[in-house]
Amino acid sequence: MKLPNAPLKEVIFEIFWASPQDGDTINDGFDLALGAFAIKMEEAELSKVIRKVPANTIVPPGVLTHQFWKGEQLWPVVQIGPGTMAVNDIGRNYEWEGKGGYFELIKLSLKNINESHRTELPVSKATLRYIDQVEIDRKVNARDFLRENFKIELNASFDFPGKEEKFNITQTFRLDDGSALVLVIEEIFDKGTDKKNLSWNTIIEKKFAGVDQNVIIEWADEAHNVASRTFRELLKPGFYDSFN
């Protein structure tokens, strides 16, 4: 269940599939599939199509070229390109379960992208990324904030050669099913507002040997469970409770 005041900024699910012409810019019927996919997404009320690259541009596999929105900047958005598809949503909209939930959109998008191609796509990689972020006072030392609120510390036992501007912590863990869990915690600054933030990304990713959509759906659900458990375990109780 989503926390009432969750710090979630964005969630991104993405798949990649192997091209029959590896390394070539020609993908497995993408131009033909695009039209069929657009019709299916219109039925799903994501009818506003935005092209991210100019027409007649040669695009290599793995680059997202088209977006499907409910309306002008009305989230969620589904994106596709030769050899890839992504489903994005922002925190205020996000619910994993239920009618109209994020997981339902993942399943619908997988179904539509497969039905838009002549054969079911052999997925070679999938990722699920949660981006959480909280604003902190510019006068607060981000290392101190991290130590007080997270079950992790960043220590340096040498004299800094100058004033530290920001930090980045990246850790990778191998899960039992072969997936990788990647945690990225960083201090970032919003140039537009001059605000200081602490951001943490929870990324679950796995390489596959050309599996079908049912395998990906099962993996995505378990990846969500892993991300949820990691969120709870990473934060100290008082900080976690502040999002209730």
Describe how the helices and strands are arranged:
Layout: E1 8-17, H1 30-43, E2 48-51, E3 66-69, E4 77-81, E5 84-90, H2 102-116, E6 123-136, H3 142-149, E7 168-174, E8 180-190, E9 195-211, H4 213-234, H5 237-241
Antiparallel strand pairs: 1-5, 1-6, 2-3, 3-4, 4-5, 6-9, 7-8, 8-9
Helix pairs in contact: 1-2, 2-4
Folded structure, characterized:
The chain is of the alpha+beta class. It is 26% helix and 32% strand. It has a 9-stranded antiparallel sheet.
Summarize the structure.
The chain is of the alpha+beta class and 244 residues long. 26% of the residues lie in helices and 32% in strands.
- pLDDT average, as an integer? 90
Helicity, in percent? 25-40%
- Judged by helices, strands and strand pairing, the structural class is alpha+beta
How would you sum up the major sheet? 9 strands, antiparallel
Number of helices: 5
Q: Biggest sheet, strands in spatial order?
A: 2-3-4-5-1-6-9-8-7
Tell me the series of helices and strands, N- to C-terminal.
Answer: EHEEEEHEHEEEHH
Query: How much is the radius of gyration in Å?
Result: 20 Å
Distance between the termini: 11 Å
Number of strands: 9
What amount of the residues lies in strands? 25-35%
Runs with pLDDT <50, length 5+? 21-26
Taken from the alpha-carbon principal axes, the silhouette is elongated
